[in-house]
Design goal:
DUF1761; transmembrane; transmembrane helix
Amino acid sequence: MGDLNLWAILVAAITSFMLGGLWYSPALFGNAWNRLANDSRPKGDGHPARVFGVSFLFSLIAATAFAYWLGPNPPLPHALKHGLLAGACLVAASFGINYQFANRSFQLWLIDGGYHTVQFLLFGLVLGLWH
């Protein structure tokens, strides 16, 4: 862990957090996501500070694990390829399994799986460029 670029990991987590804000906003997929997820979301009054704080913590954990998987100073093509692999083939595919059993829509899976695919591509971009 000592050889990993902690600043790059932090920036990667921040980019993920910023992507989520845009991805799930009305400007992109927020309205569709709200419509599609409305029936399946647990109802509650999760405080925004808790929701955003926990979400950022998970982004930081994911970015750290991804950086560990890549190793120190990964070449950009390697980091991007692994970002696509992790986002689309590990995260989105795993979501797909859960979404099938939960009877969630294919469109909802595309939105959520797409977010995580782009998230890990951003992780790869930051970690592949910042040595």
